[in-house]
Amino acid sequence: MFHTECSARRLLDHVTSRWGIWVLLRLHERQPLRFYELRDRIGGISEKMLSQTLRNLVEDGLVWREVEPATPPKVAYGLTPLGGGLCAHLAAMLDWIEDNADNADRTGDQAPSEGALPSA
Amino acid sequence: MFHTECSARRLLDHVTSRWGIWVLLRLHERQPLRFYELRDRIGGISEKMLSQTLRNLVEDGLVWREVEPATPPKVAYGLTPLGGGLCAHLAAMLDWIEDNADNADRTGDQAPSEGALPSA
DNA sequence: CAGTATCCAAAATGATACTG
DNA sequence: CAGTATCATTTTGGATACTG
């Protein structure tokens, strides 16, 4: 299923792309956000990549885009219900990673029996 | 936190790398698996990438590696408890994506309220 | 402001051949 | 079998300049 050229696969690719996950997470924290607000909050992202990532996410139906016709233009982005649903999973996973990552990056060693210990 | 050079960040990078997610998921379906078994089940992965991906995941403590000294060598891989915990999140997210992806890849249209329906 | 277009650098990936 | 080494290619990412 995920080996085909289906929308599920494309969506996964976009989410796991270099910036996709961060765009989604920033919008999950706070929305709507304007283009430059996203750029500033993410930090390190080029305009090209932000633009490209946003376009992908909008196409996938995870993010909405609203243009307020004015000069200068005002464009806002936010999460669609679909994007919100995905972010729930994403945020949960990221939280879990934060909590557990250092827990075991030794080369597969057995329990160190000292140092930072789990609940036991 | 995730903007630093921490183990959480490295772990995330490895998981979201081109093949990381698939290696984990195959092992989640069935373990242990030998090197060539993983290669065959994943499909399309080169030996170089499989080797590299596995090394990363082992270093991160998500996957274990066991060598049975023999000629020819037998090497088995499986998920550590940490890897299992991550795979729970991963599998849940992937399931969700499968279920919801086609649901809305129109350019941000409102609820189609018809067409391919969920469980109904 | 919110992008796009272009060009360049860097990194990821792949195919192949080789080794213990 | 289970990799590693090497090289070529593809993809990705970034800096910059330009436009509506």
Automatic annotation (TrEMBL), chains A, B:
PROSITE patterns: HTH_HXLR
InterPro entries with a match to the protein in the record: HTH_HxlR (IPR002577), WH-like_DNA-bd_sf (IPR036388), WH_DNA-bd_sf (IPR036390)
Segments forming domain HTH hxlR-type: 6-105
Pfam families: HxlR (PF01638)
Swiss-Prot/TrEMBL keywords: DNA-binding, Transcription, Transcription regulation
Protein name, entry field: Helix-turn-helix domain-containing protein
Taxonomic source organism: Nocardiopsis suaedae
